[in-house]
Design a protein that fits this description.
Two copies of one chain form a homodimer.
Chain A lengths: L9 E2 L5 E2 L1 H11 L5 H23 L7 H12 L5 E2 H8 L3 H13 L3 E5 L7 E5 L1 H21 L5 H28 L1
Antiparallel strand pairs in A: 1-2, 3-5, 4-5
Helix pairs in contact in A: 2-6, 3-5, 4-5
Chain B binds a DNA duplex (30 and 30 nucleotides) through helix 2, helix 3 and helix 5.
Amino acid sequence: MKNVHKSDFDADPDGSLFDPAARAAMRQFTGGGDTAALEAAAAVRTAFHAIERMRAHGSQGRGLSSGAMDLLMRLGATDGDGVSIGELAQSAGVSSRNVTGLVDTLEREGLVRRVPDQRDRRSVLAQITAEGRDWIKAFSEPSQRAMTAMFMDFSADEVTRFRDLCLRVADNQHRLAQYLEGAS
Amino acid sequence: MKNVHKSDFDADPDGSLFDPAARAAMRQFTGGGDTAALEAAAAVRTAFHAIERMRAHGSQGRGLSSGAMDLLMRLGATDGDGVSIGELAQSAGVSSRNVTGLVDTLEREGLVRRVPDQRDRRSVLAQITAEGRDWIKAFSEPSQRAMTAMFMDFSADEVTRFRDLCLRVADNQHRLAQYLEGAS
DNA sequence: GACAAGTCGTGAAGTACGTACTAATGTGCT
DNA sequence: AGCACATTAGTACGTACTTCACGACTTGTC
């Protein structure tokens, strides 16, 4: 990670952090209105990139992207014939096109293989390989340690609450998308 | 947004949401260890993509990406000769190469222009144009509405706390990166 | 003044993610 | 049976973000 040296944050009177530069920009943007939602959205962005950087830095060498790692973990948890691309996409909440690409990557690394689905010949099943399971074994502990470090000053309750808030945002988006789809 | 129909979440006994499929995968991954940090990290990813989708859906047509919008807002808040690429990168917490690309995009749209820095001829200043300010005027209200909708069932306190948790994660990453840099 | 070392923006290349479209295949209605 | 329509994975294309490498430029030191 070069050239990225995030500026420090300030703290509000209640102790919660905020990004002064972002807040100033938001205030201008909203014309003096409420910036809370925009600030929170920007903060999610910041946190996401931070986690992404941590992962890139942590699992040096054979580091998989978060998307690929997510898929591999999901495949590792199922001990059957494999999971179809579409099913993976739905469960991970990303486009199937993206899963196709990630499976390409994992297949190139030898961690996953494609097998045709005999029940539905349109479908392709992704199966984790022995190497894939080895990867999981090898990277489980360092990954876990890196992510634990990211939340080092969080109480257990805060971690849980944080997860809850994140998923509620995702839930809202899902609901809104469905609502808007109906309106079109 | 096609092909993306995120599965629903379950709620823990304490009412906090979690992703059952992800948790199952994590448990396998950690070998039965604590999955809290990994689950939280995955949740951030989910929330980030949700916000990204909302923005893509909301500001249809002349929709800028979140990165580009962030830059434009920062430029809109400064009424001087402009801001250098590196300064923007630092303030937004991304690589300067990325800012170069985003300024390319904004310049193509006519929302920003590049001017040489007379004090330092290596440097390039990005200036917001009149069109850029018009864009801000036009998209301020809908963007604000969309982001408010994303947090519709959040109390004001929860939004603030959420922002704080996000920025603390970013702060931890920053600290860890500096620490690890020293160790190499 | 000259020159080594650091900084600045950007070209090149790689990954992740999205939409729109297509070919192959499955399904349901008549 | 046959045919319209849905669904699946993948192709093509565009954007965001990253690291690495490089040329243009500044700065600190002699």
